[in-house]
Amino acid sequence: MICRDLEYHIKIQDELRNLLEKIYYDYYKTNDKWNTMDLNLKALGFRLLRQHGYQVPQEIFQNFKDKTQNLKPHLIEDMMGVLNLYEASYHSFEYEGILDDAREFTKKQLIENQDQTDESISELISHALEFPLH
Fold this sequence. Notes:
The protein is an all-alpha fold. The chain has a single domain (2-130), classed as Glycosyltransferase (Alpha/alpha barrel), CATH 1.50.10.130. The chain has six helices and no strands. It has helices spanning 2-28, 32-35, 39-51, 79-89, 97-113, 119-130. It is globular. The two termini are 33 Å apart.
């Protein structure tokens, strides 16, 4: 029984690794695909790849900044995307200003708009603000 559980666990790990490789090479290496993603998908992909050691540059979030280098205000329309960007910002390296700015902006937006969101998202926001995934 233990041997079967171990085999299953190894199989799942291999499948996850293969999926991450596919995402990394199909999307990151062909940069134009990152630019077509919405905030939610991009932030989630970024977080998962960084979490597993892939070197995805913070610049993939550059198109969410306006001409004055501030994050675009329309982003708050997608609270799940804002939440995922907040979680992704915790995977920053030293001197990654885009992610530092994103964490500051998203935290503020999450706090200010939490009461206007769906109850299930509001619970996720509360938990993330108290205990970020990273």
